[in-house]
Design brief:
Elements (H helix, E strand, L loop, with lengths): L1 E5 L3 H12 L3 E5 L3 H8 L10 H8 L3 E4 L2 H4 L5 E4 L14 H13 L3 E7 L7 H14 L7 E7 L9 H6 L4 E5 L2 H15 L20 E4 L1 H32 L3 H9 L20 H14 L5 H25 L6 E5 L14 H11 L3 E5 L4 H8 L5 E2 L3 H5 L4 E4 L11 H7 L4 E4 L6 H6 L3 E4 L2
Parallel strand pairs: 1-2, 1-4, 2-3, 4-5, 5-6, 7-8, 9-10, 9-12, 10-11, 12-13, 13-14
Antiparallel strand pairs: 6-7
Helix pairs in contact: 1-3, 5-6, 9-11, 9-12, 12-13
This protein binds uridine-5'-diphosphate-glucuronic acid.
Uridine-5'-diphosphate-glucuronic acid binds next to helix 9.
């Protein structure tokens, strides 16, 4: 099938590369010519494991362009995967979405096209995109002969494991009010639903993956599924962080508690790791958008609101713990291990490291930091905070009064803790992710604490 994808961010680019890999003819469109030039030359603008390898394999089926006239006519399916950044009220900014819808409407060919919202968009956006497309088509001479249907196909990929999540998804959700659109998308996703493609060697098919479930539903339900899924995951993390506070007081081990409740198949083991809380571009934005949408209907969402409050409190708890340990923060040197909002990405959106660094600097602390891949980006986007970047964890430790593990990169799990302890002025580590081996660290002569 022929596919056009508008927007080459995380979602658009991953979707494009995966659909091209399973055999479709894909046009990835972005208005940023520089991005298109670099993608055409095989350079990936984001850090995502194996994306460049898969892009190379899929290259014969991939086209990069900034021209709607090239991408849209003849497409069976057009995905809209543009950004929907949050506005100060929490509601997402839909400017890029409306621009994309209008430009698609200006170029739709005669024949049937399914226009799919893949960006996370407020409930009702499917209808809205439909009306924008209709208005634009009606203004064209040949517009009356175009046929289209709008669908919602929310994305559930995680940064850092985006390709794995796209090729081996837990489920595919398709929302459309017209059966013809469902049929087209079913055909498009068939190789993934039936797992008939041959798996790349570097992304082997997990043994447990059989046929992938497809949920076909109406537009509004698909749109709500996306927000509800992210809100629930965010809630799960905040729940374990709330229980962590109790665990700390009663002397319980929150990692064991998480494991113990997660083994109940009704609860499930994932997203129960306590620590600094969630970051990234999705949970904060989507919980805020869900609260804003509910507000438009006069509904309050106290559970989702509480999840957000608990998440914010986890950042303050870092400062409280450091204060408790060091008594005075002014004039101290504190090192941060990890800057990205989670491992395997260089994404810094809502990364806990930014807020923690700022809170410490406001209290007169000198802050040193290291991250395996996000340092350059941090300097570019947040250089004004004034962190001292170091070439590795040992250099961070040099002269520090405390270290904070902010992002659980694998390379921090097996540090030479004796060497780290020797380099520090006062050997104390605050494990913000429950990722380190407490016994080993204490044997090496460091004091250890965690954020429960
Ligand atoms: C999240 C969802 O997991 C995806 O399903 C969804 O498609 C995506 O948002 C989106 O809406 O685009 P992502 O933000 O890439 O994906 O990252 P996650 O792996 O979900 O992690 C989010 C944050 O939660 C990270 O800061 C991570 O450190 C934190 N986290 C995760 C915890 O604090 N504890 C956990 O147990 C799990």
């Amino acid at each position: 099938m022929r596919v056009a994808i508008i927007g080459t961010g995380y979602v658009g680019l991953t979707t494009g590369v995966c659909l091209a890999f399973v055999g479709h003819d894909v046009f990835c469109l972005d208005s940023d010519q520089k991005k298109i030039d670099s993608l055409s030359a095989g350079h990936i603008p984001i850090y995502e494991p194996y994306l460049s390898e898969l892009l190379e394999e899929a290259r014969p089926n991939l086209n990069f362009t900034n021209s709607y006239a090239e991408a849209i006519p003849g497409a069976d399916v057009v995905f809209i995967a543009v950004g929907t950044p949050p506005t100060p009220s929490g509601a997402p900014n839909l400017e890029f979405l409306s621009q994309a819808a209008r430009s698609i409407g200006e170029h739709l060919d005669v024949g049937f096209t399914v226009v799919v919202n893949k960006s996370t968009v407020p409930i009702g956006s499917g209808n809205w995109v439909g009306s924008l497309l209709r208005d634009t088509c009606e203004q064209r001479q040949e517009g009356s002969r175009t046929e289209f249907a709008v669908a919602s196909n929310p994305e559930f990929l995680r940064e850092g494991s985006a390709l794995h999540d796209s090729l081996y998804p837990d489920r595919i959700v398709i929302g459309a009010d017209e059966p013809r659109a469902l049929e087209v998308l079913y055909s498009l996703y068939r190789p993934i639903l039936d797992q008939t493609f041959s798996a790349p060697t570097y992304l082997p098919r997990p043994e447990i993956v059989g046929a992938v479930p497809l949920l076909s539903t109406d537009l509004a339900s698909a749109e709500l599924i996306k927000y509800a899924a992210n809100a629930f995951l965010a809630l799960k993390i905040s729940f374990i962080n709330e229980i962590g506070l109790v665990a700390e007081r009663v002397g319980a081990n929150i990692s064991e508690v998480g494991r113990g409740i997660g083994l109940d198949s009704r609860i499930g083991p994932r997203f129960l790791s306590a620590g600094l809380g969630w970051g990234g571009s999705c949970f904060g934005k989507d919980t805020a958008a869900l609260i804003a949408t509910a507000g438009e209907y006069g509904i309050q969402l106290p559970i989702v609101e509480a999840a957000k409050k608990i998440n914010a409190r986890q950042r303050d708890r870092v400062v409280e713990k450091l204060l408790h340990e060091l008594k005075i923060l002014k004039g101290r040197t504190i090192g941060l291990l990890g800057l990205a909002f989670k491992p395997n990405t260089d994404d810094l959106r809502e990364a806990p490291a930014i807020e923690i660094a700022q809170k410490l600097i406001d209290r007169g602390v000198r802050v040193k930091a290291h991250d395996p891949i996000a340092m350059e980006r941090f300097e570019k986007e947040h250089g004004s905070i004034g962190l001292q970047m170091c070439k590795d964890a040992c250099e961070v430790a040099e002269g520090c009064d405390a270290l904070v593990l902010v992002t659980e990169w694998n390379e921090y799990r097996d540090l030479d803790w004796e060497l780290v302890a020797k380099k520090m002025r006062s050997p104390f580590i605050l494990d913000g992710r429950h990722a380190l081996d407490r016994e080993k660290i204490m044997r090496a002569g460091l004091r250890y604490a965690s954020i429960s």
